[in-house]
Amino acid sequence: MRRWSLARQMLALQIVVVVATVAAGTVMGVLQTRELVAEDATAVTHAVAVSVASAPSVLAALEDPDPTALLQPYAEKVRAETGVNFITIMTPAGIRYTHPTREEIGKPYLGTIAPALAGRPYSETYTGTLGPSIRTITPVQDASGRVRALVSAGITVENIGGRLREQLEAGVLAGLLGLAAGTAGTYLAGRRLRRHTHDLGTHELTRMYEYHEAILHAVREGLLLVDGRGVLTLCNDGARELLGLPENAEGSFVESLGLPPSLTELLSSGGNRTDEIHLTGDRVLLVSVAAVRSGSRSLGTVVTLRDHTELQDVTGQLDAERGFADALRSAAHESANRLHTVISLVELGRPDEAVSFATEELRAAQELTDRVVAAVREPVLAALLLGKSAQAAERGVELSISPDSDLDDIGLDPHDLVAILGNLIDNAVDAAMSGAPPARVEVHVGTSGSACEIRVADSGPGLDPARVEEAYQRGWTTKGDGRGLGLPLAAQAVRRLGGTIDVAAGQGAVFTVRLPLPERTMS
């Protein structure tokens, strides 16, 4: 049996329970029926004996010289009408006046008569001439209370057994019907259980559960199961960590988990998605959703989450390095063009013009470097601004540093600063290119009181105030391709540093970021 499937074990157990229950119920019913039949027989004999003893005709017949001649027909008539097996009327000494067998008339009564002689009815089970019987004997009293005769009415045990057999047959039939119905119901329940458990045994189910628990707690990736109603039914440790969910998250609707709107909409959609990027408070997640169906019935969705934060940071740094490389390539190309120009001027015998041209180009490049380095003494930001300036120039956008910019090493995480300023500049350059020429971007960095202030303004078409909140959501972009991550990543880094980001309309859009300074910087 241990190798049987769970459904088969349950079927066998339920059949045993049904058989035992029906058998116990049948036995108890038989015993109770036996008691009830005996009680019913006692009540019938008592009623018949008392009725006969109370009949005036019986007391009058006792005055006749031959009481048997009058009492025997009466007793047989009452016996036939009431269904008892015998009615015996006898003298106080127990000599029979009546009996169903005429040969027994005049012979002594077999049974107990003392209680009846004392004036009270008495019931007992006794073996007489007709066999074992349940009988009641009661006195026949005259007006003065003197016992003139005794009346005994009885039903044989054989008769009672016949009635009991009838009840037993009905009880056994009901038990068999109950057993058949219970067995059929148990079989159908077993088939359903077999279908749901795929005919697996308890050992296999236990092992599957252990594997299930081990896998859920071992994998670093997040795993969610959402049913068709939008209720979270399963959440592993990785998903709790990535989404910041509480321990009792299972059983809650997705809308009540406090997730970002875009992620909540995705989990509630019930559709199939692959490797979508979504932002939470401090993470970049790669989310895939697969709908699960059984025939035409939707069972919900399986959601996998992967932490894309570190990869996104590396990608951002790679993009920056690629940008710097492109800027260097462009600068090298421009330098080559200028060098050819200088050489050509020298070959044409115009050395003064060659020197003047080379000096002017060197002065312009050095002036930009000096201005950036003088205004921004945070080396990482200074390098970023120089690189972005070259990139912007290559795209035909003038990137300038505001004259009042002044920023020292402020002790904030340089990776977050690069993410904020770099994404804001990239967004501003894109916006400026879509506006009317000349395309310009102005950057201001500095400190104001206890905060670091970064302001990036562009000459683009500006930003609709109604779309400000949308601009910080994943996938928003002014280009309309639905792949914008710059502003959301910048906003995420600002929130991570405990700062604020605002946007205002000027000639174009003006983004202002305020970041609280560390205490050591403020002091």
Strand order of the largest sheet: 6-5-9-8-7
What's the CATH first level of the largest domain? Alpha Beta
CATH 4th-level superfamily of the largest domain: Histidine kinase-like ATPase, C-terminal domain
Q: What order do the helices and strands follow?
A: HHHEHEEEHHEEHHEEEHHHEHEEHHEEH
DSSP strand (E) fraction?
Answer: 15-25%
Estimate percent helicity: 40-55%
How many structural domains does the protein architecture include? Answer: 3
Low-confidence stretches: 475-483
Let me know the number of strands.
14
CATH-defined topology of the largest domain: Heat Shock Protein 90
Shape: rod-shaped
Termini separation: 78 Å
Class derived from helix and strand content: alpha+beta
Q: Overall mean pLDDT score?
A: 77
Q: Could you describe the largest sheet, including whether it forms a barrel?
A: 5 strands, antiparallel
Please count the helical segments: 15
Topology overview:
Blueprint: H1 6-54, H2 56-61, H3 67-82, E1 86-90, H4 114-117, E2 122-128, E3 131-141, E4 147-156, H5 157-197, H6 202-218, E5 222-226, E6 232-235, H7 237-243, H8 261-269, E7 273-279, E8 284-294, E9 297-307, H9 309-347, H10 351-375, H11 379-394, E10 398-401, H12 414-433, E11 440-448, E12 451-458, H13 468-471, H14 486-496, E13 500-505, E14 509-516, H15 519-522
Parallel strand pairs: 10-11
Antiparallel strand pairs: 1-4, 2-3, 3-4, 5-6, 5-9, 7-8, 8-9, 11-12, 12-14, 13-14
Helix pairs in contact: 1-5, 9-10, 9-11, 10-11, 11-12, 12-14
